[in-house]
Amino acid sequence: MKFFKFRLPKKKSKVSNLLFRNYILSYLLTTFILTITLIVLVIFGASMYLDDYYIIDNYLSENIPAFLKNDYSNLHTIPIEEAGGYVEIVNNSGDVVYSKGKTPNNRTSYSLVDFNDVLSGNYYDDPNSQFSYKTFYNETDNLLLVIAIPKSHYTGLMNSYKLKPSYFIILSTILSFFIFLISFIIYSKSSSKAFIKPLRALMEGVKKISAGDYSTRIYLKSNNEFGQLSDSFNNMAKKIQEEQKLKENSENIRKKLILDISHDLKNPLANILGYSDYILNNPNISQEEKDKYLVIINNNTVRANSLIQDLFNFSKLQSEGFKLNFKETDICEFLREVIASYVSEIEEKNFNYIFDIPDDPFYVNIDENHLMRAIGNLISNCLRYNHEGTVLIIKGFSLDKKFIIKIQDNGIGIPKELKENIFNPFVKVDVSRNSKNSGSGIGLSITKDIIEKHNGSVSLECELNEGTEFSIFLPLI
């Protein structure tokens, strides 16, 4: 059983979703800060309005240790006395055994009414009472510690702690404003980061492209519209870079075209001009000599015409509006006709040959004139550059819905280092341009263009001094 791995396409998020997410985060953060602030304000407000029990409790807790030890000299009575209060210790008989501070009526014992006032002070404040009380009972010694503070002093003390309502409102307003400001800044920063950073990157990329740096690419880790814009920008930059390279290559080809054609035409035109001038300026030369020079002029004219014709065909194939005239054709019969047109030249060159063409018909859509030119270039190159006795083999067969034509020889071959570039324009095997067999250098390029326009392909296998093998692949109908 086979298992296939596949990836689901990554879901694209929108900028609006990003803004909404930032808004939610900002809202949650604002709510959190506001909650914390409200808690602080409540605690702060509560601390401003503590009841008297908390204050008296502090005084009581400070004196319990000394009271339990019966060490009355270490009782902390000074702050209580300064507040106008007093400290008393009462036994189980109601007698005051210790007193410090201003006690009411300088009493020395407690009546039931006095006990009632003191004990009531443990739970609530009687509006008619002058003091607030706190007590602690020592069960071991049957003694009661009584601490009393005047309500008038307590009220003044609390008023000093309290905030006026107007101040409290102003403070709350200021805090709320700062909370809103902080939330706004956080939201602005998070949102601007999502916008400003990609926009800056895109602007930098546009500036570099405008300056001619077509290798510029923008990489944004984003799945929203900015990420899509970044991908589109990179695709645009890549296409511009490719177009620029094609333009540069075309310009280089154009310059090389002019240079090579000028050089290749120079020799035959110079020969034509030289020999024709010689004939014109020497009317007394013999007819035999004149015929010799006319043959040279004719050969150079044919050579110049061939170069010009190659250039014309190459330019025509490169034009955008060029189209082939396809016709359903028996490729075997067509191949036999092409070979027949070269048989006399093959025999004249004293080549040995082997032709192996199927008898059965195989049909291919071809432009007969142009395909004949493409195959003819390969045969002509074999005849032009190889020596007598070379074996030329041409065969055809079908394989995998394609018809394959092989043109091979055991001649001088082609260096392997030229194999990859041999189909490029103006690539020549023979280094010497003055060789009488030198071609235009665009014949194989023309062959490749024609075959590719037939939706086919051409390849080369070669070895120097061991021959060449060209293979043409054409789709069968």
TrEMBL record:
It comes from the Bacteria. Pfam families: HAMP, HATPase_c, HisKA. Its main location: membrane. SUPFAM superfamilies: ATPase domain of HSP90 chaperone/DNA topoisomerase II/histidine kinase, HAMP domain-like, Homodimeric domain of signal transducing histidine kinase. It is a multi-pass membrane protein. The chain crosses the membrane at residues 20-44, 167-187. The lineage of its organism: Bacteria, Bacillati, Bacillota, Clostridia, Eubacteriales. Keywords: ATP-binding, Cell membrane, Kinase, Membrane, Nucleotide-binding, Phosphoprotein, Transferase, Transmembrane, Transmembrane helix, Two-component regulatory system. Its EC number is 2.7.13.3. Residues 260-477 form the Histidine kinase domain. GO terms for molecular function: ATP binding; phosphorelay sensor kinase activity. InterPro entries: HAMP_dom, HATPase_C_sf, HATPase_dom, His_kinase_dom, HisK_dim/P_dom, HisK_dim/P_sf, HssS/ArlS-like, Sig_transdc_His_kin-like_C. Residues 193-245 form the HAMP domain. This is histidine kinase. The keyword Ribonucleoprotein does not apply. It is found in: Cell membrane. SMART domains: HAMP, HATPase_c, HisKA. It catalyses: ATP + protein L-histidine = ADP + protein N-phospho-L-histidine. It comes from Clostridium frigidicarnis. Coiled coil: none annotated. GO terms for cellular component: plasma membrane.
